[in-house]
Design brief:
heterotrimer; A mainly alpha; B mainly alpha; C alpha/beta; A: mainly alpha; about 70% helix; elongated; B: mainly alpha; two-stranded antiparallel ribbon; globular
C-alpha cells in the first residue's frame, strides 16, 4: 500500500519554517506538557543547573577557602548518622571539606567543561559540515575521510590521547593552569564528527534544491545563502545532537577526571570528587563518592531524557 | 569475492600505516628518547653522538620504516617508567584485558539482542517500557560509577565478590587465564558486568530501532498480506533482516569494549592493558602509549575486516553484484 | 462483461463476492478524529474488475487496507461492514483474518522493489506462501511455484526460482509479486497502484497479465489507481473516490464517455487526448481538501462549477444518474424522475 498511515498532514504549514518558529510552535510545547517524564527531567536539570550557577551564593561553606577548612572535621559522616554534624549536611571529605559545598562547586565545573566542550564541538562540526556539504569535492572527501577514521575509534580513547599528548608536550608549570582548557579541547575534538555529518547531509540536500540554485544565479553571496538558508534548516537536528552530546561530554569529563587525567583535586569536578572518595569506599566512608555520584547520574540522566524528547519532537515520522 | 578481500586488506593496511604514523610521531617528537635515556649532565656532544648512533638523525621515512619494522616484530622500545621492553609488558597484560573484553561482549550480546528483539516486537507493553527506562539509565550512568556502585553493594556491603584484582590465575605458555579457578571467575564477574552494561543497553536500543524499522517495510506488509504466520513474519523475515546491519555495529562495539576496558580496569585495579595505558598517560610514558595505540588500532582493523567479511557472507545483494560485474 | 448489470444500492446482489457497506475508517489525532474513509459502499462480483480511482489521499488505499485487515493503528474501522462470500470479515480476530489473507484475499502493492524480502530467494518466498495455505510437501510446493512463475511469464523459471529479488528487473519483480499473490489461489486480489512504479512500456504488460490471470482463474480484482487510462483498459466498473467518499460508481464505459458527477467530468476532461482538436489542457481548479478541513455539504462543492446552494449545505448520497450512480444534487431530478 502506498501509505497505510494517517493521511492528511496535521500541521497546516507546507512552507519550510525556520527553526525558531517551529520552537514556538504549539506542537513542541504540547508534546512537552504531555510527557511527564520529560517535565520531571527538565525540572531536575533546572534545579541542578540553577544550584551550580548560584553556588557561591547558596553553598553553606566555601570548601576552597583553606582557612575555613579544618582537618579535625575530616571524614565526618552525613548529618543524620551518628558522628554527623548538622553544619556539614552530607558529611565531609578527607580534607574536612563540606561535601555538599564541594558538590555545588563541582557541578559548576562539570557543567562549565561540558557546555564549553559542546559549544566548541558544535562550532567546529557545523562549520566543517557546512564546508563539506556546500563545497563538496576535495574538501568534502578530506573532511569525511578524517571523520570516518575518527569515528571508528571510541571518543574516550581520542580524548585520552589528546589529553596525554598535551600533558607531555607542555612544561609542567603551564600544565596545571591550562588543564581546564586542554580538557575542553580534548572532549570537543572527540565529538565534532556527529555535528559535521548531520550538517553535511542537510547541506547537500538543500544545496540541490531550486531555491538555493535560484539564489546563486541571482548572485547572492554564498555566505549569505549558507547562513541565511542552510543554517536554519539544520538547527533542529543540531540542537538534538547538542543536547545528547552535552550529556556525553559531562560523562566523558567525569570519566577523564576519575581516571586522574582530568581536573585536579584543587579545582575538582564531580568526577574528581568521586575519584577522591573512591579511596575511602572500602573503609566505609561511602558518602564522599556516593553523593557526588548521585548528582552526576541525575544530571546526565535528565539531560539525556531531554535530548530524547527533543529528538522525538523534531522527528517528522512520529508526528 | 577475491577482489573484495584484497581490496579490504589493502584498506586495512592503509589504516594501520596511518595509525602507525601517528604513534611514530608521538614516539619520536613528543617524547625525546635521548633525554630519557641519559642523565642531566651528559654533554650536548655526547647526546649528539648517541643520537647518531641510534640513527635518530636519519631521514623521516627511514626512521618511520624502522619503526614499522620493529613494531611488526613487537619491539616498541623500552618503557620510560619501568625500563623494561614494552613488548614484554604488553604480553603480560594482554590476556587480562582480552578475557575481560570477551566476557563483557558475550554478556552484552547474550542479554542485549533478545531484549532488543522483545522490545522491538512488543513496543508498548509494560515490559518494554520498563526495559527501555532501565536502558536509559544504563546509557546515562558513567561506567566508573556503575563499577563503584557494584563494588559498594557486592564487595563492601555484602562481601560476596572481590573488589579488585584478578584472583588466582593459571599460566598456560605465555597466557594467563582466570577461567580455570573459582577465584578467577568470582573476580571477573563484577568487572565484566560493569563493562558490559553500557554496551548491552546500546545493543538493545539498536536492535530495537532496527527491528521497528524493518517491521515498517513493504516486504513485511506484503508478507502479512500473504497470510504468513506471526512467527514466520517476525522471526523468519523481520529478524533476519534486522540482524544483518546489527552485525556491523556489534562488531564495532567489540572494539569499543576494548577501549572502555581502560575505565573498568582502573576501577577494579584489573591488571590489563587499559590500566597500563592510564598509568602511561599519567607518567607521560610515550613508548607505552604509542604501543597501546598501535595495538588497539590493530584490533580495530581486524575487527572491521572480519565484520565486513561477515556482512558479505550474509547479505546476498553484495555477493551477486560482484558476480554479475565479473560477468558471471 | 459489458452486460454486467450496473450497481444500484438496495438491489440485493446475492452473487457479490465482496460486499462493502457504509465503511468508515477513522484516525484519532490530538486535534480530533479525522475520517479518512466516509460511508463507502460497493460490491465486487466474482471475476469482476472494479477500478477505484481518485487523487492521492482520497482514501482508496485505505479502503483496500481495511478490506484485507491491514490498517495500521491508530487507523481503525469505525463503522460499516465488510462481507466476503456472505461471511463478515471486518470484525474477525487476528488469527482468523490471517487465514483469509493470502488464501481468499490477496494483495499487490505499488513498489516491487521493496515488496520482496531481499535476503531470501523468490523460490523460498513462494514455497513459504504456498505451504502456509495449501497442504503440500516441499517438492510439490516447489512444483507449484515453478508453474506459477511460468504462468506470470518469467522465462527460465527453473533457474530463476533460486535467484534473489535484486537479480530481477522491475517488471519481472512485479510479476513475481503477482505470482506470490496468486500462490494460494485467492478469489479476490486488491491491487494498489500495481503499475505506478514501472516504466510505461512495462505497465501495459503487467496490466495485460493481470487481466488474463483474472479471467483464467476467475479472480476478482479491486484495482486501485490514479491512472484513468489503466482503468479504462482493464476494469468492468469504476468507483470514483474523492475526500474519502465515493462520488460516482458505474460501468467503465459510462464513466468514461458520459460521466454524471462534476468531479468525474473534470477528471475525464483533464485527460489529454491525442485524437481530435487540441486545445489547452483542462484542469480542475483548487485542490482536494485535507482531512481536517473537509467542507460541510458536498466535499467537492468549493471547486464545483455547477454547484447549487443545496450542495454547500447538504451532503448528497449516491443516487441513480444516467446509468451510473453519482453523489450529486444535480442528479436529483433524474432520481426523482426515475422514482416517479
Amino acid at each position: 500500500m502506498a501509505e497505510i498511515t494517517a493521511p492528511g498532514a496535521v500541521s497546516p504549514s507546507a512552507v519550510p519554517r525556520p527553526g525558531w518558529a517551529r520552537f514556538a510552535d504549539s506542537d513542541l510545547w504540547w508534546s512537552f506538557r504531555r510527557s511527564p517524564v520529560t517535565v520531571v527531567a527538565a525540572s531536575v536539570a533546572c534545579v541542578i543547573i540553577g544550584a551550580a550557577l548560584l553556588a557561591p551564593l547558596i553553598a553553606p561553606h566555601d570548601p576552597y577557602d583553606l582557612a575555613s577548612v579544618s582537618l579535625l572535621d575530616a571524614t565526618d559522616p552525613p548529618a543524620w548518622l551518628p558522628g554527623g554534624n548538622w553544619s556539614y549536611l552530607l558529611g565531609t571529605d578527607n580534607q574536612g571539606r563540606d561535601v555538599l559545598s564541594t558538590i555545588f562547586y563541582g557541578t559548576r565545573v562539570s557543567l562549565l567543561v561540558g557546555c564549553s566542550a559542546v559549544l566548541l564541538s558544535m562550532l567546529l562540526g557545523v562549520t566543517l559540515g557546512l564546508i563539506a556539504g556546500w563545497r563538496g569535492g576535495i574538501a568534502d572527501t578530506m573532511i569525511m575521510r578524517v571523520a570516518d577514521v575518527q569515528l571508528s575509534f571510541p571518543a574516550i580513547l581520542i580524548a585520552l590521547l589528546i589529553d596525554g599528548v598535551a600533558h607531555s608536550l607542555l612544561p609542567r608549570e603551564v600544565q596545571t593552569r591550562i588543564t581546564l582548557y586542554v580538557l575542553i579541547a580534548a572532549i570537543a575534538l572527540s565529538y565534532w564528527v556527529h555535528f559535521a555529518r548531520t550538517v553535511r547531509g542537510s547541506a547537500m540536500v538543500e544545496r540541490s534544491k531550486e531555491y538555493i540554485q535560484a539564489a546563486r544565479v541571482i548572485g547572492v553571496h554564498p555566505a549569505r545563502i549558507v547562513i541565511g538558508h542552510l543554517l536554519p534548516n539544520v538547527i533542529g537536528p543540531v540542537l538534538v545532537i547538542a543536547t545528547i552530546n552535552l550529556a556525553t561530554a559531562i560523562l566523558t569529563e567525569a570519566t577523564l577526571s576519575f581516571l586522574g587525567v582530568g581536573l585536579p583535586p584543587t579545582e575538582p569536578s564531580l568526577g574528581t570528587l568521586i575519584r577522591v572518595g573512591n579511596d575511602y569506599l572500602l573503609s566505609g566512608d561511602w558518602w564522599i563518592s556516593v553523593f557526588p555520584g548521585t548528582v552526576l547520574a541525575l544530571l546526565i540522566l535528565s539531560v539525556n531524557l531531554l535530548g530524547d524528547w527533543l529528538r522525538d519532537a523534531f522527528n517528522p515520522k512520529l508526528r | 569475492m577475491l577482489a573484495f578481500i584484497i581490496q579490504r586488506l589493502f584498506q586495512s593496511v592503509l589504516v594501520m600505516l596511518t595509525v602507525a604514523l601517528i604513534a611514530f610521531a608521538l614516539f619520536n617528537y613528543v617524547g625525546d628518547p635521548i633525554n630519557n635515556m641519559v642523565g642531566q649532565d651528559t654533554t650536548q656532544a655526547d647526546r649528539e653522538r648517541l643520537r647518531q648512533d641510534l640513527g635518530l638523525n636519519a631521514p623521516f621515512v627511514v626512521q618511520f620504516a624502522r619503526f614499522v619494522g620493529h613494531a611488526v616484530q613487537g619491539n616498541f622500545g623500552l618503557s620510560y617508567q619501568q625500563a623494561r621492553p614494552v613488548g614484554q609488558i604488553i604480553l603480560e597484560k594482554m590476556p587480562a584485558t582480552l578475557e575481560l573484553s570477551f566476557m563483557a561482549a558475550f554478556l552484552a550480546l547474550l542479554l542485549g539482542v533478545p531484549m532488543g528483539i522483545y522490545t522491538g516486537l512488543h513496543r508498548s507493553s509494560w515490559g518494554s517500557q520498563a526495559l527501555l527506562a532501565i536502558s536509559l539509565v544504563g546509557v546515562s550512568l558513567p561506567t566508573f560509577l556503575i563499577g563503584i556502585l557494584l563494588i559498594l553493594i557486592f564487595a563492601v556491603l555484602l562481601g560476596w565478590l572481590p573488589s579488585f584484582g584478578r584472583g588466582a590465575v593459571v599460566h598456560i605458555g605465555w597466557w594467563t587465564t582466570g577461567f580455570l579457578t573459582a577465584e578467577g571467575w568470582r573476580a571477573i564477574i563484577l568487572p565484566a558486568i560493569t563493562l558490559a552494561l553500557f554496551q548491552m543497553t546500546l545493543i538493545m536500543r539498536l536492535v530495537r530501532a532496527e527491528m521497528i524499522e524493518v517491521l515498517r517495510t513493504d516486504y513485511i506488509k506484503f508478507a502479512r498480506a500473504r497470510g504468513l504466520s506471526n512467527r514466520a513474519v517476525n522471526f523468519g523475515h523481520a529478524l533476519k533482516n534486522t540482524l544483518v546491519p546489527v552485525i556491523t555495529i556489534t562488531g564495532l562495539q567489540l572494539g569499543s569494549i576494548i577501549a572502555f576496558a581502560v575505565i573498568t580496569e582502573t576501577v577494579f585495579q584489573w591488571p590489563g592493558m587499559g590500566l597500563m595505558f592510564i598509568q602511561a598517560v599519567s607518567f607521560a610514558d610515550i613508548p607505552v602509549m604509542a604501543a597501546y595505540l598501535v595495538l588497539v588500532g590493530f584490533f580495530f582493523v581486524i575487527i572491521n575486516l572480519v565484520v565486513d567479511l561477515l556482512y558479505y557472507a550474509v547479505d546476498p545483494r553484495l555477493r551477486v553484484e560482484r558476480e554479475i560485474a565479473a560477468g558471471g | 462483461m459489458a452486460a454486467q448489470p450496473f450497481y444500484s444500492r438496495g438491489m440485493s446482489n446475492t452473487e457479490a463476492l465482496l460486499k462493502v457497506e457504509n465503511l468508515r475508517v477513522e484516525v484519532p489525532t490530538r486535534r480530533g478524529t479525522l475520517v479518512a474513509v466516509d460511508d463507502v459502499s460497493f460490491d465486487i462480483a466474482p471475476g469482476e474488475v472494479l477500478g477505484v480511482v481518485g487523487e492521492s489521499g482520497a482514501g482508496k488505499s485505505l479502503t483496500g487496507a481495511a478490506i484485507i485487515g491491514l490498517l495500521e493503528p491508530p487507523l481503525k474501522i469505525a463503522g460499516g461492514s465488510i462481507t466476503l462470500a456472505g461471511r463478515r470479515i471486518d470484525n474477525l480476530p487476528y488469527e482468523a483474518m490471517r487465514r483469509i489473507r493470502g488464501k481468499e484475499i490477496g494483495a499487490i502493492f505499488q513498489d516491487p522493489l521493496t515488496s520482496l524480502n531481499p535476503l531470501y530467494t523468490i523460490g523460498r518466498q513462494l514455497v513459504e506462501t504456498i505451504r502456509t495455505h495449501l497442504d503440500l510437501g516441499p517438492a510439490k510446493a516447489r512444483g507449484r511455484a515453478l508453474s506459477l512463475l511460468r504462468e506470470v511469464g518469467i522465462a527460465g523459471a527453473d533457474e530463476r526460482i533460486d535467484h534473489y529479488p535484486h537479480q530481477f528487473s522491475g517488471g519481472m519483480r512485479q510479476r513475481v509479486v503477482i505470482a506470490l499473490a496468486l500462490a494460494a489461489n485467492p478469489r479476490l486480489i486488491i491491487a494498489d497502484e500495481p503499475t505506478t512504479a514501472l516504466d510505461v512500456s512495462i505497465q501495459a504488460q503487467i496490466i495485460a497479465l493481470l487481466k488474463r490471470l483474472g479471467r483464467d482463474h476467475g479472480t476478482a480484482i479491486m484495482l486501485v489507481t490514479h491512472d484513468m487510462g489503466v482503468i479504462a483498459e482493464t476494469a468492468h466498473r469504476v468507483a470514483v473516490m474523492y475526500a474519502g467518499r465515493i462520488v460516482e460508481i458505474g460501468p467503465v464505459r459510462r464513466i468514461v464517455d458520459r460521466p454524471s458527477h462534476p468531479y468525474t467530468k473534470g477528471l475525464m476532461a483533464s485527460i489529454p487526448r491525442t485524437a481530435g482538436p487540441r486545445g489547452r489542457l483542462r484542469q480542475i481548479d483548487g485542490t482536494m481538501p485535507r482531512l481536517n478541513a473537509i467542507p460541510p455539504g458536498c466535499p467537492f462543492s468549493p471547486r464545483c462549477t455547477e454547484a447549487l446552494d443545496r450542495c454547500r449545505r447538504e451532503r448528497p448520497d449516491l443516487m441513480p444518474a444516467n446509468e451510473t450512480q453519482a453523489a450529486c444534487w444535480q442528479c436529483a431530478p433524474v432520481a426523482e424522475h426515475a422514482n416517479a
